[in-house]
Amino acid sequence: MYFFRKPEDVFKVVDRNFTTMVLGSKESDATAYRAWQRAEAKNTPISQMKKSIGGRAAIKAVNDFLKKLDLDEEYQGWFHSATYEDVATYWAQHLFAWRLKETLPETVEFVSALAKGSIACRDLWESGERAASIQMVADLPWANTDTMQWYLSVLRTNRDEIPNEWHLPAQAMTMSAIARMVMLEGSRLGSPLDRAWNIYDLMNARHPDTGDLMAIRYFMDQTLAAAEGIETHSEFADLAFKHIEDDDTRQREAKKYRAGKVVPPHKQCLQINENMKPFMSERSAEELFYLANIACFCQKLYRRLQKTKDLELDPITPFDDFQVFREMSEDRLKEAMKHAASHEFSMGF
After folding, report:
1. pLDDT tens for residues 171-217?
2. Which residues contact 151 (CB under 8 A, 6 or more apart)?
3. Residues 6+ apart with CB under 8 A from 56
4. ∠40-44-46 over CA atoms, to 5°?
5. Which residues are CB-contacts of 15 (< 8 A; sequence separation ≥ 6)?
6. pLDDT tens digit sequence for 257-290
7. Phi/psi-derived region of residue 348, left when phi > 0, alpha when psi is between -120 and 50, beta in every other case
8. How far is CA 6 from CA 10, 135, 155, in A?
9. CB atoms inside a 10 Å sphere around CB 242
């Protein structure tokens, strides 16, 4: 419903697949791959997966993946310390694995509550209690934005199954709320003010003629600005795209991305960041790594909304609506957590 069911759904927006990241390509072990996908779709307990050849192969592949990470004893101890709340939703598991509870505990609690509330909302919708489901959406602190008013209209007027793409604008708004919580908690913890980029500037990045979102151009320009001794776009293109052998191709690719004609693959954005690391401070490189991911997500999402049939919502609206969070207090934001107790979610382990 109003939040991505699991982090893998965010990966899909940028055309990445979490399953292939863990298991490798589908061709490497088709049996394990299919077993993993079935288990994800049906929320199959691990104890049940162990009864099939494919399930055992998938579990082994996951264990092999974890071994490659070469986790130290401290990190293994962290996993063993998990409570029920730490694994109660797909989002909770993901955030726990990244140990974000150590640095941003309130944000982790906020995200987990949103995940639970969205699950409860979806369950009400699918069980036929649509009025109650719609009310949960209407109760969100950002429900008065143009994006959410459109979404509420969709929910109220469509009795048939709603296409997955039509949930994307509302899910994007929930991601914006999380970004605001990160900023609020980060500022209390002494987060530096002179960062290499600003999320409000990112959301406001527009093409001067068409008004289209220009998140990738913003990422490239901020990376150039942070690079020491690099002054021109031509110099930047040669360095940022050095993994491309042909000089002319490097320049063409850079110009296409800056002009917004083509959205680069997620891996390409990360490669640009990697290539430019030697020319900037460690802190700037890390901050721009996050920008690479977020800018790619925003641009891919915008393009996907542009291509969504019969959406009847300007694709730029969720990005325009980000401004509503600028003045939203933490207490007001946390009102979105109240529906977390509406549903007790079990992963089936």
Report:
1. 999 999 999 999 999 888 776 767 889 999 999 999 999 999 999 99
2. 2, 137, 166, 167, 169, 170
3. 49, 50
4. 110
5. 265, 266, 300
6. 999 989 999 999 999 999 999 999 999 999 999 9
7. left
8. 8, 22, 21
9. 13
